Amino acid sequence: MKTQTVATVGAVLIALMTLSACGNTIRGIGQDTANTVNATQSAGKKVANAAN
User: Fold this and answer.
1) DSSP at 2
2) Helices (H), ranges, 1-52
3) Separation CA 38–CA 49 (nearest Å)
4) Residue 23 and which of 29, 40, 48, 52 are 20 to 30 A apart at CA?
């Protein structure tokens, strides 16, 4: 294999690994946001129930 071909394949593999890591991070942020919303709603319900 030529050096240029090896370098191109290596660059593509690095780019794919980087993009997959970004996808995992974005998915994690979405889950964290959903958990925050759920916790906030739960706290609101507890306060409302305590006020009654």
Assistant:
1) -
2) 3-51
3) 16
4) 40
Instruction: Tell me if residue 1 falls in helix, strand or coil.
Output: coil
Pick from 17, 38, 12: which is nearest to 46 by CA?
38
Tell me how far CA of residue 32 lies from CA of 24, 41, 49, in angstroms: 12, 14, 26
What integer is the mean pLDDT of 1-6? 85
Q: Flag whether pLDDT at 42 surpasses 80.
A: yes
**Position 24 pLDDT exceeds 90:** no
CA distances 41 to 18, 23, 36, 37, 44, Å, are 35, 27, 9, 6, 5
Q: How far is it, in rounded angstroms, from Cα 45 to Cα 9?
A: 54
